[in-house]
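re: ur question from yesterday

yeah so i grabbed the chain u mentioned. its 417 aa long if i counted rite. heres the sequnce exactly as i have it in my notes:
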Amino acid sequence: MTESVNIQNQITNLSQKTKGDKVIWTLVILLALISMLVVYSATGSLAYKKYQGNTEIYLFKQVAFIVMGMSVIYFAHMVNYTMWSRIAKILFLISIPLLVYTLFFGVRMNEGSRWIRLPIINMTIQTSDLAKLGLFMYLARMMSKKQEVIKDFKKGFLPLIIPVLIVCLLIAPANLSTALLLGASCMLLFFIGRVNAKHLILTILIALIPIIILVVAAITSHNAIESDQVSEVKSSTLTRRVSTWVSRVEGFIYGSKVTNDEGAYQVDQAKIAIAKGGILGVGPGNSTQRNFLPQAYNDFIYPIIIEEYGLVGGLLIVFIYLVFLWRCIRIFKRCPYAFGAFLALGLSFTLVIQAVANMAVSVNLFPVTGVTLPLVSMGGSSFLFTCLAIGIILSVARNVEQMEGNNSIVPENNNYE
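ran it thru and got these structure tokens back, copy pasting raw so excuse formatting
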């Protein structure tokens, strides 16, 4: 009896210390519960084959990542968000050499170098996740300081777009989709931050040039295959990564029947999973496509959700992310200081845009990207960085609530050097 009372008191004390947007907390917990259910289902057959019948091993790993992630969110939300303004420039500058190191000496998987291996814990992390955090912190800091000259090209736009270009160009060779999504998130943040629309349109038009080139290359490759000129297409490809990008676009346009790209095969299997799900799904743990769909627990976890929980389950996931974005926009409107407002909005944009891209790939509305579904896909370094971003958003919300509760606002110093 005494132990149960102590546990109840500890839970009460923890809930009292937990501040920030309660709706976001609820959404995060809901996504974590969904993640445990779907990851366990999607990895059951894989774990049985790989670990001699131990089907729970991936579930235990996911639970461990969720516990670590929730701890990251809790401790991050207790930190005053203005601290990130002090370290934003340092974190951004650190991420640049890490991206360069990853590009040339990182762990290579799927013909791309996206990871570095931490020596002590022997864990691989994507340096692009750290770079995204550092970039948005730096942009939020710069935008808050340059609001008076934000319309000026030299004084306002160039100091903002140059860091974005540097990070995106370093990420693109190994992970073009992440670079494009990051660039889109930054453009949206700039638009809301009152950057001159002409400058944004010019940047978008320039960014469309390589995308158009990829589409033309994919069409040319398809025509060459039909005319038995495959060797000529291969000889014109500069790198394997470019060849992968072209095949992804080609698979998106023409389907798996004209390309051997694994991404097109994944999309076909995802369509089968979605078709089997119907309105209400086949039920938790009853997926059959998990045995045929590569990365069913990671990049293509959304089709498994629809197969098991139907269109209702798929729409629920979409609804959760939309509500998350709405609550973050609400924080943006309530925050009286530019740095906190831009920080919360920028981080929420990148998470929601990543989620939309992942789901769009699953239903063949977008070429295969290789990005995960935030807080749902099987845990890893990306999961923990996502939790850190959410913790920072909740930190902004917590400080906003404290200022509104006290009815006395202490001026924020946005001029940290």
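noticed a couple things. The chain has 14 helices and three strands. also Residues 301-334 form the longest helix (34 residues).
anyway ttyl
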